């Protein structure tokens, strides 16, 4: 497609999405639920054709030499399609925030003011190789009454089209407007740019993918973006930490899964903590590369020297930077200087120190005696998440249905004129 | 100042503001209240020098031929300084949202999750000729624990400096960091551009002023903006309206004050409403210019012909476009096509029609049997407002202290590792 036609295409999709959004905003929770269950059934029914479409993408990806990790993200089989369908059903089971009253007040003049949750409108979702995002993100948007415009990675285009066809057919059969969830039908990169500048057509963009995608979206977007660029999470072991808990949490926060944004990347240890040796030994024994200065190497000789950039690096790997600090205030200062406002944890038995850390660390999620790997919408009880936000406005941390809503003020009077 | 130095100046102010914001976030409500009361006292104490500084601005403004309305906005006297000080005291009396728990849940694994309101961080406020905004906006930001960077109109620079000097001295005497509220010390227009692109330094910008200022801010900003461009408000008189109420509300919604954003600009009347004649006659009698088509002129001969652009015009004057429509659905469609998502009202005794209108009109504020002129933070019981937002994210309608906050997730555990 000619680049010059792409903005027109996105504008057309945006107008259809806006019209669909008006209808979606008026649907009851049960109606939306029914449409999502119908969509899940359609995905299940199309399992074979979805897997066949995915085989085409996999063949191209292998031919073009995609890495093993990317191939695994792209790959669908019957089990993954089933889990995609089950994910849509799980979204259908979530509480619908739309229509909920945030607060209600009666003014002295008799006016009754309520704030009511409503959908945001049109959500753009820009993602990379995982084709299941087509269903997950589409379902989250639709369940919260938003129209979605999806733009997946070009390497997954056949998979995305197949999943989207099933999803859209199921949603329409369940009574949603056909444009409730649209997939950008072309793979041109210009489509991303057109979405990012579609002010008035797309109300919010959610990038789902690696750092380069998020950075591009944040740099180019004229529409609001919900995202996190880095997950440079810290775990701080205080002098008053329970040693066994400190070891267990450090190990889990770093090593349970190293590739997720909630994985701890820097371990801060209070110089007054009595027992750092077994903590670092356990990490090294588990295959974690430790990076630190001479003080840390004196505790655990398998430690490599840390460079300055280590304190600002999200490894997403079995690597951990380790630093000794003088108490909680030094840890708070280190996190303020190097953190990414994602998730930071303290391990301590001292409630006063913990509360100071929780109050002063300025991150979307702050934790006391828990693994940073809990930073996840599912673990927070939100069901599926559309993303995790480290921005300061609208929604922070794991964002699920409520983060896809906004509110309106409803004023009910009996003829009041303003004096 | 050389244009090339301006971004550096704003960056320096931004860094000082960020450091101040950290301290402000940790202040108790009572401490913030005390600092605001001290600032109000300082403004009162400086009343003479503030009025003298204002006289310099007024002399320049008169010499450069500013219009009477602008001169009136700029003008300060002892009474206006007193009311500015009283405004700061009123903000000190508002409920502090910071620290409030939005929700709290205990997960099956024992983790306790709370969402806690926190300040946004650093707020930029860009305004025009009213010098009292220096105190109002600074007080709202400080009371909600945010640092503020203020940039007022160049025509008010001496007034703003004098008010700011008093405010800052009072806040500091009351225990706030000196950079809690900063005033951009130069009048260069480049300072606005530098603020709008100060990503990471300024978390949100609030433009306070006319449409051209807001349009410029929305067009250039890389940081989030809280604003409304237009207040194209509608009042719809339904067939089931009480005729006396319809007349009273139409008159009040248009004519109480014509220059505010909540003033009704278009009156929609149901063709099945029995009694439009006295409504339009009362408006014309009150000096309102009516604009409509032949159908409207047949009801009220003093009506001028309406052009297409009348349906998209915010007059901010004693002018009202009037249209007959076929019922609430046609009114809803007209508002969707021409409204600005600010405030729209229905007058009816039919509850079902009213609820349909309230649900389907997609504006920040929707009203039933009330004057659109109530669209105001004070009237909503929020105290002073920082602005009214027609954006869809974060905060909509009148925005006061709560809209200047965001939240963090606080997770309290007992050593939970993620399975």
Summarize the structure.
Two copies of one chain form a homodimer. With 419 residues, chain A is of the alpha/beta class.
Throw out a few tags for this protein:
homodimer; 419 residues; alpha/beta; Aldehyde Dehydrogenase, Chain A, domain 1; Aldehyde Dehydrogenase, Chain A, domain 2; 2 domains; seven-stranded parallel sheet; 16 strands; globular
Describe the structure.
Two copies of one chain form a homodimer. Chain A has 419 residues and is α/β, with parallel strands linked by helices. Chain A folds into two domains: 3-226 and 398-410, Aldehyde Dehydrogenase, Chain A, domain 1 (3-Layer(aba) Sandwich); 233-374, 3-Layer(aba) Sandwich (Aldehyde Dehydrogenase, Chain A, domain 2). The first copy, chain A, contains 14 helices and 16 strands. Chain A has helices at 6-25, 29-45, 47-63, 68-74, 78-92, 132-143, 157-173, 190-196, 211-220, 243-255, 276-285, 294-299, 327-338, 351-360; strands at residues 101-106, 112-119, 122-127, 147-151, 181-183, 204-208, 233-237, 264-270, 289-292, 304-305, 319-325, 343-347, 365-370, 387-389, 397-399, 405-416. A seven-stranded parallel sheet of chain A has the order 10-9-11-8-7-12-13, with helices on both faces. In chain A, a hairpin with a 5-residue loop joins strand 1 and strand 2. In chain A, helix 3 (47-63) packs antiparallel against helix 7 (157-173) and helix 10 runs parallel beside helix 11 (276-285). The termini of chain A are far apart. Strand 16 (405-416) of chain A pairs parallel with strand 13 (365-370) of chain B.
């Amino acid at each position: 497609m000619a680049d010059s036609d792409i903005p027109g295409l996105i504008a057309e999709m945006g107008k259809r999405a806006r019209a669909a959004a008006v209808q979606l905003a008026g649907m009851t929770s049960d109606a939306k639920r029914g449409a999502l269950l119908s969509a899940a059934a359609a995905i299940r029914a199309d399992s074979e054709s979805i897997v066949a479409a995915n085989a085409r993408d996999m063949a191209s990806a292998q031919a073009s030499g995609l890495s093993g990790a990317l191939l695994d993200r792209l790959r669908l089989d019957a089990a993954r399609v089933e889990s995609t369908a089950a994910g849509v059903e799980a979204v259908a089971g979530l509480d619908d925030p739309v229509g909920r009253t945030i607060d209600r007040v009666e003014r002295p003049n008799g006016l009754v003011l309520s704030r009511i949750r409503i959908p945001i409108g049109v959500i753009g979702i820009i993602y990379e190789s995982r084709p299941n995002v087509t269903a997950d993100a589409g379902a989250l948007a639709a369940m919260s009454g938003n129209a979605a415009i999806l733009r997946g990675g070009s390497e997954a285009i056949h998979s995305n089209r197949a999943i989207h066809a099933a999803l859209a057919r199921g949603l329409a059969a369940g009574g949603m407007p056909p444009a409730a969830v649209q997939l950008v039908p072309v793979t041109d990169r210009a489509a991303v740019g057109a979405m990012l500048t579609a002010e008035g057509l797309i109300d919010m963009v959610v990038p789902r993918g690696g750092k380069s995608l998020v950075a591009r979206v944040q740099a180019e977007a004229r529409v609001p973006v919900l995202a996190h660029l880095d997950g440079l999470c810290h775990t701080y072991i205080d002098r008053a930490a329970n040693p066994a808990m400190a070891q267990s949490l450090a190990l889990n926060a770093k090593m349970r899964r190293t590739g997720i944004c909630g994985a701890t990347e820097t371990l801060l240890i209070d110089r007054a903590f009595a027992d750092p040796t077994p903590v670092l030994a356990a990490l090294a024994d588990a295959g974690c590369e430790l990076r630190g200065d001479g003080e840390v190497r004196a505790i655990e000789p398998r430690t490599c020297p840390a460079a300055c950039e280590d304190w600002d690096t999200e490894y997403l790997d079995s690597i951990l930077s380790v630093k000794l600090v003088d108490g909680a205030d030094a840890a708070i200062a280190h996190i303020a200087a190097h953190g990414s406002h994602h998730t930071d944890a303290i391990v301590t038995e001292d409630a006063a120190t913990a509360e100071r850390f929780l109050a002063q660390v300025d991150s979307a999620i702050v934790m006391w005696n828990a693994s940073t790997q809990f930073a996840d919408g599912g673990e927070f009880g939100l069901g599926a998440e559309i993303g995790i936000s480290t921005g300061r406005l609208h929604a922070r941390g794991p964002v699920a249905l409520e983060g896809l809503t906004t509110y309106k003020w409803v004023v009910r009077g009996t003829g009041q004129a303003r004096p």
